[in-house]
Amino acid sequence: MSVILVFLAVIAGFAGWWLSHQRLTSKPWLEQGLAGDFAGTGRSSLPTAKIGLGVFLAVVGCLFSLFTSAYFMRMGLPDWQPLPLPRLLWLNTGVLVLSSVALQCAVVAARKGQIDNVRLGLATAGLTALAFLVGQLMAWRQLTGDGYLLASNPANSFFYLITGMHGLHILGGLFGLGRTSIGAWSGARPERLRLSVELCAMYWHFLLFVWLGIFALLAGWAATFIEICRQLLT
């Protein structure tokens, strides 16, 4: 439950920061002059697509927060038997970091108008994302081969559920990345291409952040960290 509260506090803080820049407390009927003379009376500088993606990512974050909260509650029962963390997940994590870095490089290149570097960044991000998904499937196969089946233990079910949901979001991101790549190779307008690349990078950075949280959760580090915080508070 505390995990959800912390996440919602972060979302509320971001929402409060955004609303504070919208001049909600202003009184335009008392101000004199042209509308364009006052800061903040025009359209928001943040594109609508980024706002929409931010709302979607907030919902996805709440979903994984619920999974995390349920994981902590379920692991306290006596039938919980944690499964060993496959070493392959370390490699997969590095691959996903590389994918996120490649997209950030594509963002920088798009802002500078370097279309060749944009294409290289998008291609690298796509290939490494596919490698991450293949690596996840290989980790699943390794665990099932060792007898850690889906219905064998609640810990196994949570592992496959959480990693599977994250993999589905990566797969959905590949669809958007593919559309952006098509635009980069077909000569899309620079402004439109830059926005598309920035949206992909925003989505990818978020999924990397979520995966790092999942990795810490499955490795047992998150539980240790929370226990240390509890001891410090008490």
Account of the 3D structure:
This protein is mainly α. It has a domain at 85-233: Four Helix Bundle (Hemerythrin (Met), subunit A). Helices cover 76% and strands 0% of the residues. It contains seven helices and no strands. The protein has helices at 2-20, 48-74, 88-112, 115-145, 154-185, 190-219, 221-233. Helix 3 (88-112) runs antiparallel to helix 6 and helix 4 (115-145) packs antiparallel against helix 5 (154-185).
Produce the secondary structure layout.
Blueprint: H1 2-20, H2 48-74, H3 88-112, H4 115-145, H5 154-185, H6 190-219, H7 221-233
Tags for this model:
single chain; 234 residues; Four Helix Bundle (Hemerythrin (Met), subunit A); 7 helices; globular
